[in-house]
Amino acid sequence: MNRQQAGWTMVRCDEQQMARFRANIAPIDCQLQLLRLSYLRWPRVSRVLFRIMNVTKDFTKILPQK
Question: Which domain of life is it from (predicted)?
């Protein structure tokens, strides 16, 4: 088995995990409005959360879509 085939098997095994991962990230858009509200109360905490969520959103764009 060459390296490419090994990599492909690995991807196949991870597909279920990726689907679960996407399902967890799906509600992010709903949470953004809550973040905007909380930003007024706790700017520092919200800024960190906002950065994390922006990163995860960019990550979902990188993932292969079905």
Answer: Eukaryota
